[in-house]
Design goal:
alpha/beta, binds flavin-adenine dinucleotide
Length: 372
């Protein structure tokens, strides 16, 4: 079975890795688009705090979070330790103690369904600040022990390297779907240098993120995926050991903050529905991020500004990812629409796409995620 995976974001990289591990011959094609979501994503893995009630989304997101430690351990066994993953816990911040009680009750209720939530405990404002020193002092919080963070860029790169070691081939360039006799036959590479070369395959996985609509439109498929711009800021606290600081989830605003090794703090992010592929950092975006970040963590004010990243979240029409075979066109599997939770769900979504393409029974029923 020769499988062509289009898109080397977290979904495509995971799919290529899973398919190569299952013995498929894999070609991974990527056009290095500006605004790839995986290269901008914050990397919070804490689906249990989301106010999503859809059971299919929850089943997928919780299973994905549950599998992360095994994925990271498997990559480490294969020599890939540079993925920026750590289970650092999260602080769900509240304005008042009654709000904190509500958050705790909701998390404990979900723990029956998802024991991997881990410890759930009340913290005073002072305790919370001990764990994340730039935080304001008066925000009580609920600690969520199972929460983690990951560096999407490094994880995707590690998955690609691991896939290549299992025989996958990586090609650069814009892929165009090739169709013959009512089925997908491969992709044609665009761009002058590639000269329209045809890469033949038995099946194609469209892991093309927010660009899935334009990738599949020539095949007459109207996939409801839109780009939602997210601007996200990186700040350095020089010389501070931030590697074990928890993720901050301040609640209603949808903004958050997290820390990586070496004093790097990530704060954001905007959610700009209707942005299209407008790859810009805007004054309004910066004002929104800084306003939220400094209100929650005034201690960041004297940090060093590093950069602002821009990414396009692939948003489907609803909350559910679009995952599974394309009806009416043999040889095509779609894997996109992971929205704001793609770094959490991407590894599982990619491996489910690989299973579906290779004709294996998927580990999770894909019917609720039918893409069209
Ligand atoms: C600011 C921001 C913060 C986020 N924070 C989090 C978070 O904390 N936790 C979380 O779980 N998720 C988060 N997300 C969401 C997550 O980043 C995305 O859902 C996820 O990265 C989507 O991955 P993907 O592989 O589907 O798409 P992408 O990463 O966008 O990858 C798609 C790839 O397809 C390639 N491509 C497209 N068309 C073609 C073509 N025709 N030919 C060849 N290649 C093509 C592109 O070059 C790109 O590399 C965040 C996103 C943003 C923007």
């Amino acid at each position: 079975m020769r499988l062509i995976v289009v898109g080397a974001g977290i979904v495509g990289a995971s799919c290529a890795h899973a398919a190569a591990s299952l013995g498929a011959e894999v070609v991974l094609v990527d056009a290095a688009k500006q605004g790839r979501a995986t290269a901008a994503g914050a990397g919070i893995i804490c689906p249990w705090s989301a106010r999503v009630t859809d059971p299919a989304w929850r089943a997928l997101a919780y299973a994905a979070a549950r599998q992360y430690p095994a994925l990271v351990a498997g990559l480490a066994d294969a020599g890939e330790t540079d993925v920026g993953y750590r289970q650092v816990g999260a602080l769900a911040l509240a304005e008042r103690e009654e709000e904190r009680d509500e958050i705790r009750r909701a998390l404990l209720a979900r723990r029956a369904e998802a024991p991997e939530i881990g410890d759930v405990a009340d913290l005073s404002g002072a305790d919370a600040r001990r764990l994340f020193p730039p935080l304001r002092a008066d925000a009580p919080a609920v600690y969520i022990g199972g929460a983690a963070r990951v560096d999407g860029r490094r994880l995707a790169a590690a998955l690609v390297r691991a896939a290549v070691r299992q025989g996958a081939v990586v090609r650069d360039g814009e892929a165009h779907l090739a169709i013959g006799r009512g089925r997908v036959t491969g992709v044609r590479l665009g761009g002058e240098r590639a000269g329209g070369e045809l890469i033949e395959g038995d099946a194609v996985v469209a892991a093309t993120g927010a660009w899935t609509g334009s990738f599949l439109a020539p095949a007459g498929l109207a996939v409801p995926v839109e780009a939602q711009r997210g601007q996200i800021m990186h700040i350095s606290l020089d010389g501070v050991d931030t590697g074990r600081w928890p993720v901050l989830l301040p609640g209603a605003s949808g903004h958050y903050m997290l820390a990586f090794d070496g004093g790097r703090i990530v704060a954001g992010a905007t959610r700009e529905t209707g942005s299209g592929f407008d790859y810009r950092v805007t004054p309004a975006g910066l004002a929104e991020i800084l306003g939220q970040a400094l209100t929650v963590a005034p201690g960041l004010a004297d940090g060093t500004y590093l950069e602002t990243r821009v990414g396009f979240r692939p948003m489907g029409a609803g909350i559910r990812p679009l995952l599974g075979p394309a009806p009416g066109l043999d040889g095509l599997v779609i894997a996109t629409g992971l929205g704001a939770s793609g770094l959490t769900m991407g590894p599982l979504a990619g491996s489910l796409a690989a299973q579906a393409t290779l004709g294996l029974p998927p580990a999770i029923d894909l019917k609720p995620f039918a893409p069209l």
